[in-house]
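Comment thread on ticket #2218

A.B. wrote:
> Attaching the input chain for the structure job we discussed in standup.
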Amino acid sequence: MKNLGQMMKKAQEMQARMAEMQENLSAMQVEGTSGGGMVTVRLSGKFDVLGVSIADEALESDNGELLEDLVAAAFNDAKVKVDAAKKEMTDEMTGGLPLPPGMKLPF
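C.D. wrote:
> Ran it. Output below, let me know if you need it in another format.
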């Protein structure tokens, strides 16, 4: 029975760490850029768009398709950074042990 108690304690600790990670992700802000800094997209760690900044020269362009591509590229750049931060946090929480196939943390 001692092992069961230890397992329950570890599960509670993991749950507390996951809740803390969720809070950290909500507070995190990451910027992605494209077009040499002409477009910047700011995301939270939960992929909420917090802001978009577009340089005047990009707005003055008559090429709407290019601007759309720059916004998408900036968003994707920020998403890659959020994913990397999430992986780093998960690795810290799990002690670098990989999760079993198909198991995902709740975020």
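A.B. wrote:
> Thanks. Noting for the ticket: DSSP finds three helices and three strands in the chain.
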